[in-house]
Write a structure and sequence with these properties.
Shape: globular
Strand order of the largest sheet: 1-2
Largest sheet: 2 strands, antiparallel
Helix content: 55-70%
Strand content: 5-15%
């Protein structure tokens, strides 16, 4: 549904929100696991660059990941 659509503009806003924060601040503010909080800005940059390269202004997020699917199977 529409609630699963994330625009490149929203991705840029999220990057701007998390980039100035320390890893500890990201963990506390966004409840990101400590093991992943350090790579969040790089992940946003990679997704934004990929969206730009593909000429996409939005993506559909499943709110699940491969690991989640593996656990279910």
């Amino acid at each position: 549904g529409a609630e699963n659509v994330i625009t490149v503009s929203q991705m840029r806003e999220m990057l701007s929100a998390v980039s100035p924060l320390t890893v500890e601040e990201r963990v506390l503010k966004y409840e990101i696991s400590a093991g992943r909080a350090d790579i969040v800005p790089a992940a946003f940059v990679a997704i934004i660059e990929l969206m730009d390269y593909l000429g996409r202004d939005a993506l559909v997020h499943t709110f699940h990941n491969i690991r989640y699917g593996l656990i279910l199977s």
